[in-house]
Amino acid sequence: MRLAFDFSNQNGNRYLVMAPVGGERDEIVESVVANNWPEFLAEWSVTEKNDQLLFRYRITGESSLEHRGYSMTAGDFCSQLIHVLRALNSSGDWFLDYHNFYLDTQLVFTQKQTGRVQLIYLPLMEKVMSDAEIREFFQSLIVKAQLTNDPGQMQIKLLRYIQSSQFSLEGLLREAVSFQKKLQKEVLESQLSGEKIPEKEMGRKEMTGEQTAGAEMCGKSMGTRQESDMGVQRLGKRNSLTGGVGGNGYDYSADEEWQNDDTDICAPVKAGAWLELESAAISRPPRTIALEMGPAGMSIGRKNSGNIICDYMFPAEIKGVSRRQAQIIRKNGMYYIRDLNSSSGTFVNGKRCIPDRAYPLSAGDRVMFSEKYQLVYRVIL
Q: What is the rounded CA–CA span in Å between residue 104 and residue 101?
């Protein structure tokens, strides 16, 4: 499918306009997404002019992959690749066909502080990109990377995997996460000790944080969706049609089984470690928090107008989270959490953490931020 695109600025906002030649709108996708907007998509609007579809996207990411440049450390590259893959792999949870993402280094946007990714999606009935073109995109991304350090020949191994007959997006994400964990383990083993981590070391490093967007793991692609008498039945892990969180709290626990399709290169994946939202008494909290460890662990806080910066930052409107809430570290294969003297409190399995004391985390544990708003996350390891 041929596409024409152009950028424009209006009222302080940056917009991208894309005009596909041919194609039919997918109104089901537009309806699903409109009910609960996924963070990893650039917000779109659709108009028709002279029988021509025009898609207008509002770009809030700081820069495109192309503009950001390709000279970086192996750790930063891993983080960047994981952010893109996780956002792409989240498509099944939103009833999106991953073939309809337009993958181009000029049109994949990232935010420097959070690593959040914005992808361009064309809600059309036809496929925009083939599996071969998607493979070529990731191969080009890896080839262009100019890594300042690559002790384990990560770049070569990733290329070999992409060129192999076993290639899948799920597999590539697993490979990238594996390399990232090895890099983090080397740093942590050499730098972390049993002593209290100095406050000055809690600052964030570039290209860490949530994926947005979208860090939900992958469900089925839209190409294999099922329909029932009640309408479209989503095959992902969460029902986007239920909307956001009610004021009295909403149960986010998974109520559907993971679906798998061996013929789909966007297969479900559970890799790495993260916190998964179960319930909250506040509207629209982040659904996942990827545990991406830096040398000093991972600090968690809330966006603010001051100079306090954490590795992962809740949106400013989530008032129940302190500007410096908690810190998670990993040592000798174990995860630990400690409260950073927050005013709202950090809880593990219902018990409030004493500030500056490390508490071990195991798979299935419940971590709660804020006694008032009760943001409860399940530990996934």
A: 9
Report how far Cα 151 is from the mean position of its chain's Cα atoms: 27
- Count of beta carbons in the 10 Å neighbourhood of residue 60: 13
Residue 42 CA from chain centroid, whole number: 13
pTM of the model: 0.54
| One-letter amino acid of 236 | G
Distance CA 48, CA 265 (A): 33
What pLDDT digit, counting tens, does each position of 120-138 carry? 999 998 889 999 999 999 9
Helix axes 169-191, 74-89, angle to 10 degrees: 140
Give SS3 for 230.
coil
| pLDDT digits 0-9 by tens, 351-367 | 999 998 889 998 889 99
Q: Give percent helix, percent strand, percent coil of the chain, each to the nearest 5.
A: 25, 30, 45
Q: At what angle do helices 74-89 and 154-163 cross, to 10 degrees?
A: 30
Amino acid at 119: L
Please calculate the CA angle 341-344-345 and round it to the nearest 5 degrees: 60
- Where do the structural domains in the chain lie, given as residue ranges? 200-380
- Chain centroid offset of residue 32 CA: 19
3-state secondary structure string across 353-366: CCCCCCEEECCCCE
Domain 200-380, CATH class in plain words: mainly beta
| Distance from the first to the final alpha carbon of the chain | 41
How big is the chain by its Cα radius of gyration, in Å? 21
Which has the higher per-residue pLDDT, 178 or 220? Answer: 178
